[in-house]
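Let us work through a complete example step by step.
Step 1: write down the sequence.
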Amino acid sequence: MSLMEAVKLALLQIRVQKLKSFFTLLGVTIGVMFLITVVSIVEGMSRYMEEDFVGKLMGINTFELRRFPNINIGHTTEATWRAWTRRPFIRDYDVHPIVDDLPAGTRWAIENMGNNVPIESGYGQQRKLNLHAIDGDYFAIKKMNLASGRTFAPQELQGGSLELIIGDEVARFFFPNVDPVGHELKVGNIRYRIIGVAEKQGSIFGFSLDKFVIVPLHSPARRLTQRPGVVRTLMIQGASIDAMNEAMEQVRSTMRARHKLRPSQPDDFDMSTSQTALQFWEKIKSTMQVAGAALPAIGLVVGAMVIMNIVLVAVAERTREIGIRKALGARRRDIMRQFLMESVTLSTIGAAFGVALGIMLAFIISHVSPLPAAVAPWSIVVGVSVGAGVGVLAGIYPASRASRLDPISAIRQE
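Step 2: predict the structure and record it as tokens.
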């Protein structure tokens, strides 16, 4: 019996025994469905973290100089935290000695940030927003474009003018039916004039990135972000990865000299790149992949047991048919191939349904929740291959048992 004949016979049996085939498919379908769903969610989150999350927070080819790490998800000991709090602050007078020695073509920006700062309109409306006090090439590094208005002029940044730029959500909240440019908002009881509205930035895991106002670093609102003279973050962007690495070494050398650190002493400041920020995600990703494989594995084991039982029942029901085929010249391997192909065909069809349902479920979850989804092509191949593998493992014993039946005894079977 050729392979195609075995497949056709298996499909015929599936069509004849629809209900039995449906319950046989169910276990594999559920297992593969959850496998595809979990992989799609993890893959979507991974792409989101690498392309959007870190990109929006830090910028491309950018590193941040800070007192201690900005992103720190995981276990930090009390001793480590105490050591961080003893580090010296980065101050205004540290900035120009650092940036003046940077390679040509390197951008820099300062960002101080205060969370949940009350911002008021002239009509008594108030909302707590993120306040950013900035200097340098902030908008270029962040790749933040404006929907209307303009950015700060260099003179406005240096002089700390009473002007601000707002996020899309802030514009819609305070000025739903008018252009905000030219209107005023109160920050720390001081009126600031709106000169620009940023383009919509979107969200990260359901948290809006458009709830912000941006003011010049040297304006009075700076006191709402950090203590006087303190720089929270100095962002430095190279024209390439190599340029960024060169700038990092230059900044490290300058900071160690300013803090009078001996060669044996560790850095008392932090420099983080996007790869540094993604290290915590890689740990979470591996944990999610292992944990996410457990549920599909249970479904596939159940599916394999169901398929084995169904094929064993089929062997018992078709004993007479097996005897007649063997009496007509069918070889042992023909019988074994027939039942093995029935098992594999069942599980492969179940896996195909599971792949389709898994993709649908992943995108439904991404639409009704903040979790992103991205179907990895390799996961489809793995899903179908796993389904076929389950069929092989589940069908070997029943097929072998069918092939060993004595033809005369099988023909007598009623």
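Step 3: interpret the result. The CA atoms of residues 348 and 385 lie 8 Å apart.
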